[in-house]
Amino acid sequence: MNILMIGGSGFIGRHLAQTLAERGHSVTVPTRRRERARHLLVLPTVSVVEDDVHDPRRLQKLMADQQAVINLVGILRGGNGTPYGAGFSRAHVELPRKIALAMQTTGLRRLLHISALRAAATAPSGYLRSKAAGEAAIAAVRGLDVTVFRPSVIFGAGDAFLTLFARLQRCLPIVPLACAEAQFQPVWVGDVAASMADSLQRDETFGKSYELCGPEVYTLRQLVAQAGVLSGHRRPIVGLPHAVAYLQAWAMEFVPGAPLSRDNLRSMQLANISSGGPALPFGRQPMALETVAPGYLKRGG
Ligand SMILES: NC(=O)c1ccc[n+]([C@@H]2O[C@H](COP(=O)([O-])OP(=O)(O)OC[C@H]3O[C@@H](n4cnc5c(N)ncnc54)[C@H](OP(=O)(O)O)[C@@H]3O)[C@@H](O)[C@H]2O)c1
């Protein structure tokens, strides 16, 4: 297939592009900055184009000669507001709507869209509420064959999660940790990529949503400890009281690129775990974190 992969220059995109290329698909990745996607250029059937995916005419042009679209665009910091900040609105709601409408206009039907586990209009964070609104915006556009994926937090080479915890422990004598008891069911990026690629061939996935989770539930404290052990720099972890964590997150909102915001804390009020179905679709067995993470954490991420 010829596939347009929007938001494909990031962490998941890197792994999914490789999986799709290995399966013989041709993938076009639009990016705001070609430089960000240069790691994809080594893949034989993957091309990178600098373009503005927020412009409906550019989107329609990008969709010419494609057979499927994958939307991976997502941000963790989209500002504050009710029901969500302006950044979340633009990236998680307006853009998916524009993508779906451009597909309808160009007659393209197949869309894979990545949302987030526990996305809901009533969720405590703007991130999760905007992810739910994005799903709804796509569902409101008629005539598309959509499959939605809702992953828990994702680990794998190049992640911004275990790698960050490992790096922090290399630099800090202790780790002050917000929401230490928050629960996650981390899923390997290879399983995310394979599940998404599998769905391209499966008509029964049209109109369905799939949770993507790993085999085990961990607290954030356990994950940070695990990252410390696996990278060889385990430090003491000090769980922060809620008020201190909130102040820390508020202060970080003034630091460009900082890894935490008050909205992230609100997301962690909900257990980021499976709602009870299979961890992965299509009979796939999820890879354990302990099997994969040592390989890349020992190399530094
Ligand atoms: N990683 C996880 O643990 C996790 C868990 C659950 C759900 N998800 C979801 O999975 C998706 C991919 O995650 P990821 O970890 O691969 O993210 P990532 O590494 O941060 O990559 C995000 C991509 O989105 C694009 N992007 C960001 N803001 C944009 C904007 N305003 N307009 C247009 N493009 C924009 C970036 O493209 P440029 O090249 O243009 O910068 C980049 O390719 C996201 O929707 C995320 O919410 C991720």
Task: Describe the structure using short key phrases.
two-stranded parallel sheet, binds NADP nicotinamide-adenine-dinucleotide phosphate, globular, seven-stranded parallel β-sheet, alpha/beta, 301 residues, 13 strands, single chain, Rossmann fold, 10 helices
CATH architecture of the domain at 2-159 and 187-214 and 273-284: 3-Layer(aba) Sandwich
CATH superfamily of the domain at 2-159 and 187-214 and 273-284: NAD(P)-binding Rossmann-like Domain
**H-E order:** EHEEHEHEHEEHEEEHEEHEHHH
Helical content band:
25-40%
Low-confidence stretches: none
- Strand order across the biggest sheet? 3-2-1-4-5-6-11
Q: What is the first-to-last residue Cα distance? A: 32 Å
CATH class of the domain at 2-159 and 187-214 and 273-284: Alpha Beta
- Content-based structural category: alpha/beta
Describe this structure as you would to a colleague.
The chain is α/β, with parallel strands linked by helices and 301 residues long. It has a domain at 2-159 and 187-214 and 273-284: Rossmann fold (3-Layer(aba) Sandwich). The chain contains ten helices and 13 strands. The strands form four sheets. The chain has a seven-stranded parallel β-sheet with strand order 3-2-1-4-5-6-11, sandwiched between helices. Helix 1 packs across helix 6 (189-200). NADP nicotinamide-adenine-dinucleotide phosphate (NAP) is lined by residues 7-13, 31-33, 36-37, 53, 72-75, 90-91, 114, 116, 151, 153-154, 161.
Helix and strand arrangement:
Elements lengths: L1 E5 L4 H12 L3 E6 L14 E5 L5 H8 L4 E4 L14 H21 L3 E5 L11 H14 L5 E7 L2 E2 L6 H10 L3 E3 L5 E2 L2 E2 H12 L7 E5 L5 E2 H12 L5 E3 L2 H11 L9 H6 L21 H11 L2
Parallel strand pairs: 1-2, 1-4, 2-3, 4-5, 5-6, 6-11, 7-10, 8-13
Antiparallel strand pairs: 9-12
Bound molecules: NADP nicotinamide-adenine-dinucleotide phosphate.
The site of NADP nicotinamide-adenine-dinucleotide phosphate (NAP) has 25 residues, from α1 and α3.
